[in-house]
Records
---
Amino acid sequence: MDLALAMVAEDHGQALALATARTMVMYVKRPGGQSQFSVPLSAPPPPDDRFGPLLRVIAEQPAADLSTEALAARAGLSVRHFSRLFARHTGRTPAAYVEGTRLERARRLLEESDRALADVARASGLGSVETLHRAFRRGLNTTPADYRRRFR
């Protein structure tokens, strides 16, 4: 796949290669040690249809209040029951899923824009540059600035 993407980049340009990689949920150039998956695509489709709209809200509105309490209320479940069902259906706790989704949004903003880190942190729902740095270290084992340099 890496060779195919390199050929697309050579023949049709880096922008098309990057778009193709995103469609395929791949990195154009994958550095060692980084996770290689998309948070929404990593979760199996939930059989309980109350989670489908909820997962879309998480993906589309990462800066919203996505606390476990708020998500449980939106699903009409107690926090404890919601947390158990959510983890069973997605394989992750609500907090881990939300952070992964926010990290993915931040990653895309860094790839596609020249926005300041503070703007990226706010738009992705991570809030502050410090939280953005912690999330990148924890999830991708790199810093936002290094990530931007590597993938822009």
---
Amino acid sequence: MKGIQLTVLLSSCFVSSLAVASSMTTTTAISSAGSALNLTQSFYGYLSLIIFTIAYTVVMLEEYLKLRKSKPVLLAAGLIWIIIGFVYKEHDLTEVAQQALEHNLLEYAELLLFLLVAMTYISAMEERRLFDGLQAWMVGKGFDFRSLFWLTGFLAFFISPIADNLTTALLMCAVVLKVAGSNTRFVNIACVNIVIAANAGGAFSPFGDITTLMVWQAGHVSFSQFMPLFLPSVINYLVPALIMSFFLPKDQPDTVHQHVELKRGAKRIVLLFIFTISTAVAFHAVLHFPPVMGMMMGLAYLQFFGYYLRTSLPNSLAKKKALAIANHDEGALRKLGSVVPFDVFRRVSHAEWDTLLFFYGVVMCVGGLSLLGYLELASGIMYNQWDPIWANVAIGVLSAIVDNIPVMFAVLSMEPEMSMGNWLLVTLTAGVGGSLLSIGSAAGVALMGAAHGKYTFFGHLKWMPVIAIGYAASIVIHLMLNQALFS
């Protein structure tokens, strides 16, 4: 609990520091008609900051309050824009506020639809039992704790660039919990390893994390330009993993053998997902359209395939029934009776709606603070007074305290003048910085719930110095290998 209070205090200090810094600016001024107001020193500006700080404090206490994180930020977004609407109406600048609101809504809509399609595909793979099959294979191989530690880590690193880091971390955690049983020491160290690997793996792919997706969709980094982050991401994972591997328990886990039969069409859905990603990349690289256009087209692929699965289901069941009868397989006959047709819209409903709505609240809150003048103020301090490299390193540390989504959205809203090397650096630090604390990323928060009592805030905190070494090493490697991109 003390750790949570510390993070709340630090985040409050950061937000309040913007208000303190604003006292160095000129008094609240009204620009000419058609431009935004500078409200950084006004009562309304301070009130909006307080609302956002309270909302985000509640978000960070989600584990203890059992309150979904979307609720406080949705309320805060509404209140901040009510304040903005009231002030701008007073100064006859309603149209300026309306244009800013529509711009933020468009930003959100593109990311919402992109993430919705990706989550639908992941949900479809889960329903077709692909993840269950992978889990059963890993559990049944009889790996010792050291092998399991490295296997779950490497799989988390290489799956998260395709699936998101949250889904990947939960899948690997399920394997660890099933194999490790009551060995709390191994569960904690393995979960720390999984969080680091999932966050590092997501840093070099536009699909691995929401922050990388945001940078890609904003046009600052193209799809192929993420690849220079691969080696720094590997270093970010390997350095702490190598150190932690010396502290693994010597015991042998119990092996549980389980057969999982994939549902019809499972592997073809994976191919459709790869084709969907290719379509999104082509829309962005060739036509210079937002990638979301390709993702929505990819949803059509899944819908047509779902239609095929439903219409061909009777013939498929008839063949399997005849085979089961011929083999006198009563178990297979019972399974056929419980087959449910594939439904795309049910998969859409299983998307992480709390995350998507939380993202809306964050985008609108940060967009509101930007219109009030706070992001321009922060940009002036961080990216004009500091070296951009140090500013981007600080962004990564901040993302361990405050979620990396609002931090990255704030950077994108500031639109600092940076080289490609620095845009890649902030992408890396915002992605992997969340590994420093268990509450710093969605993967860490989710695993604290999945492995409740075995993987904890303080269990992760004791490894923070080791994780920090990996964080620093990945930055140094990026600066050395990609030096030409900073010019």
---
Amino acid sequence: MTMKSKGIHHITAVVGDPQENVDFYAGVLGLRLVKQTVNFDDPGTYHLYFGNEGADPGTIITFFPWGKEAYNGKIGDGQVGTTTYAVPPGALEFWEKRLERFSIPFTKSERFGEKSLQFEDPHGLRLELSAREEGTSSSWEPGDITREQAIKGFSGATLFSANAEKTVELLQTVMGFEKVGEEDGFVRFKTAGDTANFIDVKLGAVGAGRLGVGTVHHIAWRAADDQEQLAWKTHIEKYGLGVTPVQDRNYFNSIYFREYGDLLFEIATDPPGFTIDEPQEALGEALMLPKQYEKFRSSLMEELDPITVRKLE
């Protein structure tokens, strides 16, 4: 059976202070906070989601904010090394000035014919803005960011693998990615989707990663629905990789497996989406709890540090 991934559904990372997280991704980058909820496995920790106005797959980055005193991780093999966002052509000059305005150091880069700005968030997560024609312009225009400059969603990601050769093989033979280039020690793949669809794999090891603040926990790929997700589960298991049972994540269903290079992959369904428990116009405004934690709302509200989306000067 031939299967082809449509690209990234979401990326999940570990960060520190939750208000610093909101200030950067909503205040500086201009993403929409589309969901406040809690970690299913640790309800005393937020799970925050940022994306475009409609909270569409391929735009969503999610965070577990472990707090100010949490230990730092180390970016390395077995992790997403860089998360890349797409911005409209001609918008990079605006973002250079915006990063300078907020005293965020950046470097300019070019790979596979694409110009980009590389920088880190306040907790050390590596990010990149890449100018790209593909993808729908964002209609979320916070502050002085217009749709001519706003982040569209993911362009892709760079993977650091403990076994790059096997990861490359998996992306091609199991996930159905198409190899489209090789340059400066990176192999580029394109998925079957038209957004969030470019994946670079760094050839050669960079040293073992360690999960903690400033690192990506996992990358999730799209499944159109539950039926396709089960087909992916069967397909992946045929290659000798262990896949978890389906996990209900409220806004999507998930399966997980660790690929040959130690990266944690998830396959997440597009539905039901983020409007199942609050209307689109109010996304991210209130703390939404899974049903099993609703009875603990009062105590959780006391435990979680309050957060707010605010305009930064």
